[in-house]
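On clarity, I found the account of how folds are encoded harder to follow than it need be. What matters is that the chain and its backbone geometry are given together, residue for residue. The format is easy to grasp once an entry is in front of the reader. For illustration, here is how one protein appears when written out as sequence plus structure tokens.
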Amino acid sequence: MASQLLHHQLLVVSTLLLLLLLPSAPVQAGYSSSDGDESSGGSASNSIGTSKCDKNPLAELTFQLSGSNLHWPCDSTKNIYVQSGRYVPRNVIVTRAQLQRDSAFVALPRYKQGVPFTLGKVNLKKGECLAKIAPYPCWAIQEEGNCQALQSVVDLAVDQNGLLWALDVGIVNTLEQPIRRCGPKIVAINTANHKVVKSIDLSDLVTAESRLQFIVVDYSKDNKPFVYVADAGARSILVYDITGNKSYRIVLPKATAPTSDVLYVALTSKADGTSTLFFSYLSSPRLYSIKGEYLRVGQGAGSIIDVGPKPYGKQAVLLGADGGTSLFFRYKGENDIYLWDSETCFKASNLQEVQRGGDCRLSTQVLPGHKRFMWALESNFHDFISDRTGCNGASIVLHPVVKECDD
């Protein structure tokens, strides 16, 4: 059973993570986040502001990330990792991020051999376009094969209280020869003192079909934290009540999943604290939602709302939320990023184009944060999974969501 699961993981990641991505555009004019404290967690208003179109590129706010530009304690340590095969620069890629003030926390999944750490931090200093990635919170927690450490972080979330929640699937070398090092878990780290404050074993919540893909954090109106995890393979949303130490599996109706490919999720929040989780499989022609108040008590039956058909009958990919009520997405096979205010009807006339796509890199996420911009994380992931990146590895860029001007 274990070998079948790992084989399934390999097939899914190699074919479906490519579908997660989208080409993005050159940096031109920025869109501001509704998150007032410049953090990725926190409450936000229900609108997103836009700036006027500007022909001048925001070069000082464009950060290049590379597997060849990691922070090492010393050259001798780096040499040991290289010689032992534990560091192969071209095998390192950043796929997800969270922003907090002038820092970015990043996930570096161990898709291939030679990824020295799987959770990192980048300082976003203005004007330093090539940013070094450092292990976060330390080197010791990155040890592969140590189940007290992180094995392969595929997603992360920073909440309103400054806690970083990392989703560790426990499987490494997913695109080569998958190895299950440890069971899946969620690790919470206090970003104020960089200490691990909680580790949640998800082994009892998963099945042989499980494929954990995304994580979001929600707070009830009485300020209690809950974690939601998208389990695409088992057609479920996992719910963990942090304070009550309870967990639930919300099994989604079969109608929501024509095929169990990628299960995208994004959380919106109103000013009164009401939260809603929007979700959709890539192959599904429709968007669905469920209120946080139902998720938090494990109530799935009768609580799921059919938001409506995806515009033009196209497959759409959720890229993220603004911290308020707006969602970002793109159409499969198309490059442009769109914004939709979830307070309006889900139809084509209510979609706003916020970035025109380019031809090189592919976006994995849109997120709020630094300088009150909305940001896009993009890379040439399609080259990465096909081993076409060369010795320098993947091209990864973090920059404000922008709209290209007309000539």
Q: What stands out?
A: The longest helix spans residues 2-16. The chain has one domain: 63-400.
